[in-house]
Amino acid sequence: MAGNGCNGNGKAEGVVVPEIKYTKLFINGEFVDAVSGKTFETRDPRTGDVLAHVAEADKADVDLAVKAARDAFEHGKWPRMSGYERGRIMNKLADLVDQHTEELAALDGADAGKLLLLGKIIDVPAATQMLRYYAGAADKIHGEVLRVSGKYQGYTLKEPMGVVGVIIPWNFPTMMFFLKVSPALAAGCTVVVKPAEQTPLSALYYAHLAKLAGVPDGVINVVPGFGHTAGAAITSHMDVDSVAFTGSTEVGRLIMESAAKSNLKTVSLELGGKSPLIVFDDADVDMAVNLSRLAIFFNKGEVCVAGSRVYVQEGIYDEFVKKAVEAAQSWKVGDPFDVTSNMGPQVDKEQFEKVLKYIEHGKSEGATLLTGGKPAADKGYYIEPTIFVDVTEDMKIAQEEIFGPVMSLMKFKTVDEVIEKANCTRYGLAAGIVTKSLDIANRVSRSVRAGTVWVNCYFAFDPDAPFGGYKMSGFGRDQGLAAMDKYLQVKSVITALPDSPWY
């Protein structure tokens, strides 16, 4: 990487731009141009400048990628080698990713506006931890012996699903790649990955590293492109057995429809969220304020489980509001490659404008803007950390996923009231509870309709903890051994035993 003046690519002075090595499609173990020859731009959200021109996959390219994946599944080594052997290759891939941490974190930093430092200490290490977790699970896929009635012996086999289409979002390009791909590989599946068009660069680099690690050709294919073309070609493909998707609820609906209209492929969806963070009177106010700031402003609010609805009990509400505003104003917005920055730019111009539009909705619907609410720089897609109060449950900013640094702060009196308010949403991805009372923590965690509940913490993810949503936040689980089930078929085998001495 180098700090440039205004260079030949038109980059702004002082902006660090990583070297970009891979911009072609990765199909059957090779980097190739799109069949059409088309490319698309991926832009740097710090400046709006073009980072690279990336090969644009369309239906013809997806057909080639699916054929490669199908051939690798039906005739290749990957599903047929032992789980131990698959695990060894996956561990080697994890080692290679670790060796390239700096470069990979820089790619996501420039492509998605993510903080370089956190990429190096959170995103990439979390991804390799995920990969190693499932490498360890690859040789522990077991069926069951059944007690069938009659003169029979019964057992089950767990067999790989086949070709899996993986469609991932732009907010955590590295972590999402391995969140989906790792359990699929461990199960013995082959994959066709479509990264988000905003952030395709690191996925292509991971394809290169997978080849170096010894993943056979055709097992991992990466086809950057747009949702309505490349994504739609995957979800409607008659030779794709399953689709794993993380993204918006609106696109999740389209994927289910496409799967139903094609070959009834299985679908797992991790979709939107509008997660409540509930702070009770007995909480340590300073701790709760810091937790709420992290819950909504981390990764510039571009987190599916962002704690965008903060409910504070009336006894500490005024103190909390004052300190929350001070905390937001101290959250430094700046170049994600600057180690003193707490928050970088929104991923692209479209998301930048969408967040600002929601802020205008909040003001027009009668919420009170306490801090923020404006662009934070003359260039790039930076937005100030924003806090609203006087928010009611029927407002857009309380009901719709903003995916930006916008906190809605609300007051409550009783436990029953806040449970009802927390569940007043079409989503159910996560929730947070801050209290010193075990009784309150237990009652509320069992009452809130969400797939993950954090008590006195937030963003406490672990590969062993299943993650997914209730309601319109989707279905199916990532992480944990339960995630393997999405990529496995269960087969019952019944054998006649006419002369067995016992049954």
TrEMBL record:
Which keywords does UniProt give here? Answer: NAD, Oxidoreductase
Keyword Hydrolase included in the entry's annotation: no
Q: Which organism is it from?
A: Digitaria exilis
**What is stated as this protein's family in its record?**
Belongs to the aldehyde dehydrogenase family.
Protein name, UniProt field: Aldehyde dehydrogenase 1
| Active-site residue list | E270
Catalytic reaction annotation: octanal + NADP(+) + H2O = octanoate + NADPH + 2 H(+)
Record has Membrane as a keyword: no
Q: Which parts of the sequence belong to the Aldehyde dehydrogenase domain?
A: 32-493
